[in-house]
Each structure stands twice: as C-alpha cells, then as structure tokens.
C-alpha cells in the first residue's frame, strides 16, 4: 500500500471510530425510546379505562388521555428519528464516504479537506467529518475541474479554488480503490460500477454522478424540467437522485408524500424501489398511468398503453385518424371551448335513486335547479351551487322523514347491538332529554337509509359524464360517437378518451385537483400524449414538473427534437419557467452494444458510447422457424453459463406466449405479465413494453425479420437492444429486417444457423 493510501486508510479508521461511538449511543437511545413508548402506551391504555362515570371525571380523563396521546406521538417521532440515525450510521460505517475535495477559499493560505458521503457526520466538537453529497459545497465534487470554481449556496454564489479531487471505493471500512482525478468524476470507478452484473434492484449512483446529471439533480429554479436522454443515459437514476436532493434541499417544507412519480410499469416500480431508502430517504408515491386511470373509472375497464400497443396494427385508417385527433393538444382546447358555449339546458344529469330504484332527486329537478342559477356563473361554480341546493333539500327531507312512523317503529325494534351501533360515540342515557336520544337515533336511521343519496351527491354521480362526453363528441368528432358508446356498453373505455373525458368532468364539476403535490415526475414521457400531460398538470396544479424521455424509444409517437418538444410543452402546459437538458452518453451498455444501437438510428451520431469494453453483438441468421428455434436454444444455454438472467424480449405478447410454449420444458422460463412486480433469475420472456426502463445482463431478440421488423419498427428494435448491459443477440429468420441490413458488418458478428437434415 503506498503512503497516500495508508494515510487515507488511517483517516477512514478514525472516522469509523467516531461512527462506532455514535452508533452505540444512538442504539442505546433508540432502545430507551422504544421502552418509553411502550410504557406510556400501557399507562395510556389503563388511564383510558378509568373515571368514565361522572361527567367531570370524564372530561378530566379526556384531557389526560389527550396528553398521553401527545406523549406517545412525540415518543414515536423521536423513535423514528433515532431509528433513521442508526440506519444511516450503519451505512456510513460500511462506506463512510466516496469523495474528497481540497479547497482553498479566497484569503486563506492552507487548503481545507472535505470528505463527501451519502450523509453528513459531525463529531463531538461539531467538526464536519463527512459532508452530505447534497450540501451546497459538495456540488464542486461533481461539477468542478481543478482550479477556480463556484458553487451555489442559499446566500448566493461563492468562489473557491479546487486543488484536489479524489475518489474512493470503500467496502466494509476498507479502501478498495482510490483515484485522483481532474475532470468530473473520473472513469475508473465508473467503469468498475458499470461492469457489474445486474441486480434485482437499481442502485444509487451517488458516488459517480456525472456533470450533466448533476445539473438535473440540483435544478430548483424551473417549473418545468425536460430531460431528453438517449437510452441508458441515466435519466431514471438522475431523477431518483433528484428526489433525494429535493427532499434534503427543502426538508422543512417537502415530504416524500408530496412527490409523485409516474412509472412505466409495475416491474419498474419494484426495480427502483430501493434507491431512495439506500440514500436514507423515504420513497415517493409511485403510480402507473393505468393505475391512475383505473382509480378514476371504477366499474370500467380502461384500455392500457399495452393494450393500445398490442392492437395498434389492427386499427383501420379511419380509427387511426380519430385517435390522432383525440391525441392532439387541440382536443383539450376544444373541451374548454365546448364548455364556454355550453347552454345550461344541455347538461346531462341523471336521476338519483334509492336502492330499490325509487327516484329521490329526478333529473328534471336537478336540471331545473341548474338552469335557474344566474347566467354569469361559470360551469364549475354553477355545479357546486346545484350540489349545495340538493344537499339542503336532502337535509330537509331527512328531518321530515325522521318523524315518520316507520322510523319510530324501527327504533322500538332495535336490539342492543344495533342500538349501540347507532349511538356511536354517544352514551346511552346521557342525553339532556330522552327525546334527544330518540331524535339522534332517528336521524342516524334515516341517514343510513339515504346514504346512497349522499354518496351520489358527494361523488357527483348525478352528472352523467359519459352522456356529456358523447354530446361533446357529437359536436366535435361525430364519427367517433358510435365506437365510444359501443365500448361503453361493454364497460370499456379507450385510452385516448380518458384524459379528455376526465378533463371535461373536472372542469364541469370543479373537482379532481390535488393541490398538495409539490413535484410530479413522469418517466418514459414519450409514451404519453399531450392531452394526458395536460390533464396531469391540471390534476396537480401546484406541482413542478420533471419530464423524462427518449424520443427514439417511442413505441407510438413520432420522433421530435428536444427543442421542438420543449416548445410544444411550453405552449400547452404554460409553465412560468422551463429548461431542457439533453443526455447523450449511454452508460448502460458496453461500447460495442451502444455503437450497434447508434447505428440503427438515422441521427445516432449524437450518442456517445461510454468506453466499457465487451463482446460485439451477435446476429444469428437462420433460414426458417425450426432452425431459428435451435439457434435460440443454443444461445440461451450458452448465455446462462455466464449470466444469472437472460431476457428474451419480444415485440408483442403473442410472440412472448408462443416462445414460452416452445421453451418451457427445457428452460423453465418465466413469462412476465403486466401484473408482475418482480423479475426472477433464469430465462425471462417479456414483451418490450414491459421491459421499459429495465436492464438485463444479456438480451436476446428473436425473429428480427423483414416482416416483423420493417423500417417503421425502428423504435421498438432500438428499445429492445438498449436493454442489454453486457450481451446482445439477435436471431433472424428468413430474410432479415431492413433495419439490420443497413448496418456495417463491423458492428456485429454474424453466425449462420443451418442444420442439414
Ligand atoms: N453516473 C452514473 N454512475 C453509475 N452508473 C450510472 C450513471 N448513470 C447511469 N448509470 C447506470 O446506467 C444504467 C442506465 O441508467 P438509467 O436506467 O437511469 O438510464 P435511462 O436513461 O433511464 O435509461 P432508459 O431510458 O434506456 O430506460 C443504470 O444501470 C445506471 O445505474
């Protein structure tokens, strides 16, 4: 070990000692806090039982119980903080830091050495032994080259001189690797990290964040941040780091619950779920578009992105035209326009009925209320007012109904359990007058009977939104009405109708907005239509947006330059400020695989491959299905010897199912469906849309032939190839895809599979 490394190891050991001391202290405190909580809880349980006979005692007990409750809550909070500290210290003990910077501030003569890790560590004398990677000063580590550098602080920009930058890999407290570097985080450690095999969970990239990724992570200025990055350029990694950064940066006012990430599929949600916890943060909320819509269309089967993809080849030219119109931003403007001119008489209300079908509020009564309101009222206000009037009328009816004979009879026939259930939090015999107790019970009985009416009012069921949307379609796109209503009869709704319909509903009823979400992230945004993005922005009006995508991987939408995309988003989402970042270096795959992917694209020259060496992709040409299958089996056997997981990625579900049938005896593969959340080891077979955002050590694509992959399937083939980290194999059957024929033979090895019979 050279002297520098010895000195650094000695420093690691010193820091570890401090960590060990703090860990012991925190663990002790944590156990104490746990004990205290359980004692208070026990106490609180007993306290809650005593003194409930006299009114005064009862009040006293209530106050005491309140106090005890607060104590438990405080203790639990304390416990949570200590548990988090223990977890953080344990992580630091294993690997206290990954970077060091030596800086010389203006006017100083001796440089200061700072170590950077996943969390801060302060010793007993308030010296910072480790700086959190998110601290303002740490940005120098990611951004600066040696010499004069600046960094942002809450007080403004500061300047310093960066004299040294050192990277470490520390495992179990031992320095495994150490490099000095001038540039941003150097290649050596990155090489090593990227060369590792794929894991069940994505890892954080905190030690090797690249400069342009750092710009995304630390952006706090823009309301709309658009990231356009080539496959494997670290978009997902960067946004997860960004979430951790934002939680640190705004820790007083931002919590993980105020952040929503739209992810492409459930597998992906599982895959990324460990990144934030590994950085000491809680996970944000995650949802797929399908889940989000399914919640809003209960009772209907909502077409998913995957259904759309599967069926797109069977659409007629007319259906395509209709879909294109519904997926244009102007369709949302038309909704706005429709509402601006909608006469109150054209509102499609429906009866509110009781369980037995008896009408409680008729459509005519509701329409009359709505029409009778002042003309200048906006639709949402008018709707709200109608609802208020209906609730008042309902309450009046309930009051009258409570005096009805059937109610009094019911009270007489209540058994004890029913009686106490109706009393709820009230106590029998504790009402000021006996009549009050009867009144209370009567009220509860009628409330139960008419709960369905409350429910209908509360959830706006008295507006027939489907009929309203149909009315809108009849005026705007009449050729699409029949298909919409036919689907509805079968309790189905097409994906392209979801965003416009919900938008119409929300604007009409003034509902559907969540003001509490501060950040909205959309991954794989190239698969979203503008109306969907407009609707999401409408749902989360206070949220800053981070949209990430790669136009080249679009399974549905045409290619767009980042600038054109930004211009279109600015026009339609109207953010106060916006910024686009392009990521052009692909980190996921070996240089050979990235070069192959690049060559598939007409504008692939803009992609930089990261210098990680590997095997050339392999193309196996086979004359027919039988030989193709033999080639596939051989390739699977061979790749399973060096990789834990081999992914057979297909163009669609039908092909995935067929291959599963052909391989299941020999390989026991797993056929992945859209409800699967985890990826097992071995051979996995999945259609490309379920592989979005994921990566695999080895990827095989089957039947890359003229018919299955014409030029128009470029995006699909590119996305399949870009899932491979270390090995890529393409098997062609008969005439190969024209996408492959245009590639230089230097980019792959070619093998012919031909078994002579
Ligand atoms: N700075 C980095 N340090 C270490 N690894 C990185 C870095 N940036 C990206 N990677 C790795 O590269 C791979 C691809 O990253 P990621 O999945 O975030 O890219 P992406 O742009 O979202 O990809 P895609 O759009 O193709 O799904 C991951 O294995 C990730 O860990």
Automatic annotation (TrEMBL):
This protein's name: ATP-dependent DNA helicase
Keyword DNA damage listed: no
Transmembrane annotation, as ranges: none
PANTHER family: DNA HELICASE IV, UVRD / RECB / PCRA DNA HELICASE FAMILY MEMBER
GO terms under cellular component: cytosol
PROSITE patterns: UVRD_HELICASE_ATP_BIND
One biological process term in Gene Ontology: recombinational repair
Boundaries of every UvrD-like helicase ATP-binding domain copy: 208-590
Keywords: ATP-binding, Helicase, Hydrolase, Nucleotide-binding
SUPFAM superfamilies noted in UniProt: P-loop containing nucleoside triphosphate hydrolases (SSF52540)
InterPro entries: DNA_helicase_UvrD/REP (IPR000212), HelD_bacillota (IPR048228), P-loop_NTPase (IPR027417), UvrD-like_ATP-bd (IPR014016)
One annotated GO molecular function: 3'-5' DNA helicase activity
Top-level division of the source organism's lineage: Bacteria
Binding site for ATP: 229-236
Pfam family, one: UvrD-helicase
């Amino acid at each position: 070990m050279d002297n520098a490394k010895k000195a650094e190891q000695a420093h690691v050991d010193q820091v570890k000692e401090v960590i060990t001391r703090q860990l012991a202290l925190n663990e002790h405190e944590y156990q104490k806090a746990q004990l205290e909580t359980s004692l208070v809880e026990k106490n609180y349980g007993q306290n809650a039982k005593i003194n409930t006979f006299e009114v005064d005692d009862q009040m006293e007990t209530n106050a005491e119980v309140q106090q005890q409750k607060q104590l438990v809550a405080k203790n639990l909070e304390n416990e949570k903080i200590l548990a988090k500290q223990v977890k953080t210290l344990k992580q630091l003990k294993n690997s206290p830091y990954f970077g060091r910077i030596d800086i010389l501030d203006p006017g100083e003569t001796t440089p200061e050495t700072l170590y950077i890790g996943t969390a801060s560590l302060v010793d007993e004398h308030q010296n910072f032994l480790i700086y959190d990677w998110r601290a303002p000063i740490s940005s120098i580590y990611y951004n600066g080259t040696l010499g004069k550098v600046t960094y942002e602080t809450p007080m403004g920009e500061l300047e310093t001189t960066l004299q040294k930058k050192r990277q470490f890999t520390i495992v179990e407290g031992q320095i495994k690797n150490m490099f000095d570097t001038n540039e941003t985080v150097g290649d050596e450690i990155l090489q090593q990290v990227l060369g590792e095999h794929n894991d069940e969970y994505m890892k954080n990239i905190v030690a090797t964040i690249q400069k342009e990724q750092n710009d995304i992570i630390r952006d706090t200025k823009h309301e709309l941040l658009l990231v356009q990055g080539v496959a494997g350029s670290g978009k997902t990694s960067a946004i997860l780091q960004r979430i951790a950064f934002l939680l640190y940066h705004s820790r007083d006012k931002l919590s993980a619950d105020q952040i929503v990430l739209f992810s492409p599929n459930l597998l992906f949600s599982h895959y990324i779920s460990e990144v934030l916890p590994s950085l000491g943060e809680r996970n944000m909320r995650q949802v797929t578009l399908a889940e989000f819509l399914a919640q809003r269309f209960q009772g209907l089967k909502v077409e998913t992105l995957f259904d759309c993809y599967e069926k797109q080849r069977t659409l007629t030219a007319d259906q395509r035209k209709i879909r294109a119109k519904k997926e244009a931003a102007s369709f949302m403007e038309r909704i706005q326009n429709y509402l601006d001119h909608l006469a109150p008489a054209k509102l499609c209300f429906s009866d509110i009925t009781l369980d037995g079908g008896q009408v409680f509020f008729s459509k005519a009564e509701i329409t009359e209320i709505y029409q009778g309101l002042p003309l200048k009222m906006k639709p949402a206000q008018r709707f709200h007012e109608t609802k208020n009037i209906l609730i008042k009328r309902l309450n009046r009816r309930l009051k009258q109904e409570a005096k009805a004979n059937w109610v009094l009879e019911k009270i007489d026939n209540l058994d004890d359990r029913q009686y106490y259930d109706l009393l709820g939090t009230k106590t029998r015999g504790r009402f000021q007058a006996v009549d009050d107790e009867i009144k209370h019970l009567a009220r509860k009985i009628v409330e139960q009977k008419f709960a369905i009416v409350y429910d209908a009012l509360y959830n706006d069921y008295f507006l027939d939104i489907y009929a309203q949307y149909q009315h809108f379609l009849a005026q705007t796109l009449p050729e699409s009405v029949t298909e919409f209503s036919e689907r509805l009869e079968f309790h189905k709704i097409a994906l392209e109708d979801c965003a416009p319909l919900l938008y119409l509903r929300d604007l009409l009823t003034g509902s559907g907005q969540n003001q509490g979400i501060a950040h909205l992230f959309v991954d794989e945004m190239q698969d979203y239509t503008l109306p969907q993005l407009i609707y999401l922005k409408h749902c989360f009006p206070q949220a800053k947006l981070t949209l990430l995508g790669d136009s080249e991987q679009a399974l549905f939408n045409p290619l767009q330059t980042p600038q054109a995309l930004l211009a279109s988003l600015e026009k339609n989402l109207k953010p106060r400020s916006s910024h686009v970042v392009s990521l052009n270096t692909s980190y996921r795959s070996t240089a050979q695989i990235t070069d192959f992917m690049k060559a598939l694209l007409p504008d692939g020259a803009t992609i930089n491959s990261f210098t990680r060496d590997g095997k050339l992709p392999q193309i196996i040409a086979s004359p027919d299905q039988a030989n193709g299958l033999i080639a596939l089996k051989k390739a699977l056997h061979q790749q399973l010897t060096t990789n834990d997981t081999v992914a057979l990625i297909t163009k669609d579900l039908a092909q995935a199912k067929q291959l599963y049938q052909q391989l299941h005896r020999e390989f026991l593969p797993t056929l992945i469906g859209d409800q699967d959340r985890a990826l097992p080891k071995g051979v996995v077979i999945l259609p490309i849309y379920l592989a979005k955002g994921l990566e695999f050590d080895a990827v095989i694509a089957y039947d890359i032939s003229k018919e299955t992959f014409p030029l128009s399937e470029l995006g699909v083939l590119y996305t399949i190839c870009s899932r491979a980290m270390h090995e890529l194999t393409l098997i062609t059957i008969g005439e190969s895809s024209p996408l492959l024929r245009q590639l230089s033979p230097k980019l792959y090895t070619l093998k012919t599979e031909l078994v002579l019979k």
